[in-house]
Design a protein that fits this description.
Blueprint (H helix, E strand, L loop, with lengths): L9 H4 L3 H14 L15 H4 L7 H4 L8 E6 L3 H14 L3 E6 L5 E2 L5 H4 L9 E2 L2 H5 L4 E3 L3 E5 L4 E4 L4 E3 L2 E4 L3 E3 L7 H6 L9 H11 L6 E6 L9 H15 L6 E6 L8 H11 L4 E4 L3 E5 L5 E5 L5 E5 L2 E4 L3 E3 L7 H4 L11 E4 L4 E2 L7 E3 L4 E2 L6 H19 L9 E9 L5 E11 L4 E5 L6 E2 L2 E2 L3 E2 L5 H19 L1
Parallel strand pairs: 1-2, 1-9, 2-5, 9-21, 11-12, 11-17, 12-13, 19-22
Antiparallel strand pairs: 3-4, 6-7, 7-8, 10-18, 14-15, 15-16, 19-20, 23-24, 24-25, 24-28, 26-27
Helix pairs in contact: 5-13, 5-14
């Protein structure tokens, strides 16, 4: 495209743009789990980057002719790290990329449910962003956004400094509502949602370990969309398995779901709840009116039949409603007019480039969990969205137009016990009829006999899947920021 020359080795530095487009399109025909072909490929991991011999940044990057252009990326999670890396990798040394992120370490929410049963320590999910700077030349700025001026194309940070941009990529993730009678202080100290991995994950682990015979663990699930659709059901399985293997007699895991049914991997989790963890997990869909007393751990709700119910819990894990960070009334995203999605909670985007569809938001892109694009809110998807966005920005900066038919893969694994797991995968392609990404079956069909295509889930839960889950996670993290 436009005379761009790719210098990089795809195994050592990440995918070239041509390989990215080719592999994504190939997924339409194969339906293969993303990254499977790269397992154990020798790509440098995040944790080893710090100690490796420095590479010459220029040798890693494409030659594009871009010069003097500035992209500011806000948020250093899965989407933000990926887009910063690939903007430099595909855009070349003349494209200045600045990543704004307040935290020194990234803690992955992917795999964090395994902290609850002791399979993983939280430290194994923590990564530096050093390679973005040392390997790709991304400028890193510690801080948070407090304001965006669309007229002057500037971003004001928490230290009152400003950054100028030609294009702005927002990947702020999500924030969590005060809900069910709970506050942010309750989440931190008494009733952790642990839906952003970190201190709350450790607290929830401590609470689960402290459970005794006949204790009750109550989890709530908000109405979709929420981050990681299979995650709550996976967590219920992990906690139930821990209670069984540690011989906590008579314990229950009660799942109060505000949705009418299981939102992902339905066959897998119906089997897990009804067979694998029968007698331990009680799944209650279609609930409303949830209230939680953070001190007494009494949970009240109205069931699907309209009957009021009360549970005395030992541990309460409220996965509360969430929204794009900054989208609340008075928040920086809202003040910039970018929270134009449902109920002002999300950012609507043009999925060809992830540019905001808000009026006057030229040059502002929103990716990851904060955006509304037709794909689920998940780490693997955020990585894919970031690549589509990076590719589109490079095309635009070199006089072209975004790919008119983007394709992306979604994949996740779900542990069912301490040794077994399931998986879910889907290929998404652009549907010009409504401007959204939709699931495509083999051959790229959006409809099968008039019915929308659906994700593919594992036929069985197995130890092999559990092993593959570790490889998938390691490879995904390498691709994101190493």
């Amino acid at each position: 495209m436009n005379g761009i020359t790719m210098k990089n080795n795809p195994i050592e530095t990440g995918l070239s743009r041509r390989q990215w487009v080719g592999l994504a399109a190939g997924g339409l025909a194969t339906g293969l789990l993303p990254f499977a072909g790269w397992a154990d490929s020798g790509v440098t991991s995040l944790r080893s980057v710090k100690g490796r011999k420095p590479v010459t940044v220029a040798s890693e990057l494409a030659t594009t002719g871009i010069s003097g252009q500035r992209v500011v990326v806000v948020g250093g999670g899965m989407a933000g790290m990926t887009v910063a890396k690939y903007l430099r990798l595909w855009g070349g040394s003349g494209l200045q990329v600045t990543l704004v992120e307040p935290d020194a370490l990234y803690t992955s929410s992917i795999m964090s449910n395994l902290v609850l049963n002791g399979s993983r320590n939280i430290s194994t999910l923590q990564f530096t962003r050093d390679a973005l700077t040392t390997r790709y030349g991304v400028v890193r700025k510690a801080g948070s956004v407090v304001a965006i001026d669309r007229n002057t194309r500037t971003v004001t940070l928490s230290d009152q400094s400003t950054l100028m941009y030609d294009r702005l990529v927002l990947a702020p993730g999500v924030s969590f509502d005060d809900a069910y009678g709970l506050t942010q202080a309750d989440y931190e100290a008494r009733t952790p949602h642990a839906w952003r991995a970190g201190a709350q994950t450790t607290l929830l682990r401590q609470q689960v370990v402290a459970m005794r015979d006949k204790d009750v663990f109550v989890m709530t699930i908000p109405k979709a969309p929420y981050r990681c659709p299979p995650g709550p059901y996976e967590r219920a399985c992990v906690v139930a398995d821990h209670l069984k293997t540690t011989q906590r007699a008579g314990c229950q895991v009660i799942v109060l779901d505000e949705n009418p049914s299981i939102q992902a991997e339905r066959h897998t989790f119906e089997t897990a709840f009804g067979q694998t963890h029968a007698g331990v997990i009680r799944y209650v869909p279609g609930v409303t009116g949830i209230t939680i007393d953070p001190m007494t751990k009494v949970v009240s709700y109205v069931d699907a039949l309209g009957v009021s119910q009360v549970i005395q819990a030992r541990v309460v894990n409220p996965i509360v409603p969430h929204r794009a960070t900054g989208s609340e009334a008075g928040g920086w995203l809202a003040q910039a007019g970018l929270n134009n999605g449902t109920a002002g909670r999300w950012a609507n985007v043009n999925v060809l480039s992830y540019e905001s569809t808000a009026a006057g938001a030229v040059g502002i892109h929103v990716i990851g969990d904060a955006s509304s694009c037709g794909m689920p809110k998940a780490g693997h998807v955020a990585n894919q969205e970031a690549k589509i966005c990076a590719d589109a920005i490079v095309r635009l900066m070199t006089g072209g137009q975004p790919d008119p038919q983007p394709v992306a893969n979604s994949a996740c694994y779900s542990p069912i016990t301490a040794k077994t797991a399931s998986w879910l995968t889907a290929v998404y392609q652009y549907d010009s009829a409504d401007g959204k990404m939709k699931i495509a079956s083999n051959g790229g069909q959006l409809l099968i006999n008039g019915v929308p295509a659906v994700p593919t889930e594992a036929a069985t839960v197995s130890q092999d899947n559990f092993k593959d889950m570790g490889t998938w996670f390691t490879t995904l993290m390498r691709d994101t920021a190493a």
